[in-house]
Design brief:
Elements: H1 3-18, E1 24-29, E2 35-40, E3 55-60, H2 61-78, E4 86-91
Parallel strand pairs: 1-4
Antiparallel strand pairs: 2-3
């Protein structure tokens, strides 16, 4: 995630903390069937920097969008939001955000 993402994640975290029965779905979209590098956070769980323990793999757009949605879910879970309140879904070119 980028540093700007931190502001959005904090706002979402505050909303979930204020509304304890709220459940959310995080959707991540990729508009192509692109293959490329996917960066996963390592054990340090440093969400806003590329730490030395990161894991890099190559994958398809579906894998990338799923990884992006999952990192948001993991970030909220790490801040104390129950995992069952967050659904994370990645989409590829079969369900573009815009056409």
């Amino acid at each position: 995630m980028t540093p700007a993402s931190k502001i959005q994640l904090v706002a979402l975290l505050e909303m979930l903390e204020e509304n304890l029965s709220m459940r959310i779905r995080i959707n991540s979209h990729k508009n192509s069937n692109y293959r490329g590098k996917i960066i996963y956070i390592g054990a340090s769980k440093n969400f806003f920097e590329l730490s030395l323990d990161r894991v890099e793999k190559n994958g398809a757009s579906k894998e990338l969008s799923t990884a992006q949605a999952q990192i948001d879910k993991v970030g909220l879970f790490a801040q104390g939001i129950a995992e069952n309140r967050i659904e994370a879904i990645g989409w590829d070119e079969n369900k573009p955000l815009y056409g």
